[in-house]
Amino acid sequence: MAATQPLRGRAALLLRAPDRAASTVDELAARGARTVLCPLIDFELPADTSALDAGLRRLLDGGYDWMVLTSITTIRALKQRCEALGLEFSIPGGTSLAAVGEASARVARTEGLSVDFVPEDKSAAGLVAELPLEGGERAFLPQADIAADTLEAGLSGRGVRADVVMAYRTVDAPADPGRRLTATLAVGTGTRPADAETWGPERLAHGLEQIDAVLFTSPSIVRRFADVAGTGYGGLAVAIGESTRAELEELGFARIATSGEPTPAAMADVWEADLVGAPDHRIHGSGTDETVREPEEKR
């Protein structure tokens, strides 16, 4: 069986904290590879949550026609803030829930939320184009601090009053302990810590020769890695999606393969494909995921 496992004996670097890496570590271990963790970015609630709190209360009071989810991290932020306010995170009967991608939709459903819409083109632009709107509707749009204005501008252009609020901030690891996102979800993230070797950022300067592939799960992680370790890494850079690939290309990384889906299985598939010389690196995979695509980020 070992002969059929291209990843056996190889090492991947995943730039995440242990509590957000278990699914990927397990997936790679099942294929014979080990994972080294090096958390470079983290997520925390905004210092001032008044706008987020007001949006959540309006949502729970039925004040929106739509809520739009852009990531699993958004769900964690909303759930954590509701817990702090003594509120139950739910969607009222008169509000429809749209998710940009299948991963966030799957986690939302597991959290007991009914997802009404996921676009065929699983991107912010796809959701703007495909969302069934009547005009004059009001939408709650909680996002990361670095999210692009694609959704806000697109929905406004279609006659929707979009209340955009910062749900969480993307920061260099570690986050402020008092604001760090720690809410646990039923699947995908925050469920248990991964059992894997963990490096500090200082190890990247002299430890990358031990690494066969680096898994990049957002453009912001690419930029942070480049700040800490430079762009001279000669091994395979596995991008979770096209926006992450574009950032790697812009910064001059030499070898890039792109996953067709934002899942651990898809990233492992694309790494295997590179090793066996498959010509098309955009390979679709399946499986649960804590390495969900981040929202579209400001460039």
Automatic annotation (TrEMBL):
It catalyses: hydroxymethylbilane = uroporphyrinogen III + H2O. Pathway: Porphyrin-containing compound metabolism; protoporphyrin-IX biosynthesis; coproporphyrinogen-III from 5-aminolevulinate: step 3/4. SUPFAM superfamilies: HemD-like. Residues 279-299 are annotated as: Disordered. Residues 24-268 form the Tetrapyrrole biosynthesis uroporphyrinogen III synthase domain. The keyword Lyase applies. Catalyzes cyclization of the linear tetrapyrrole, hydroxymethylbilane, to the macrocyclic uroporphyrinogen III. This is Uroporphyrinogen-III synthase. It is an enzyme of class 4 (lyase). Belongs to the uroporphyrinogen-III synthase family. It comes from the Bacteria. Pfam families: HEM4. Transmembrane segments: none annotated. It comes from Zhihengliuella salsuginis. Keywords: Lyase, Porphyrin biosynthesis. InterPro entries: 4pyrrol_syn_uPrphyn_synt_sf, 4pyrrol_synth_uPrphyn_synth, UROS/Hem4. Gene3D superfamilies: 3.40.50.10090. Its EC number is 4.2.1.75. Residues 290-299 have a biased composition (Basic and acidic residues).
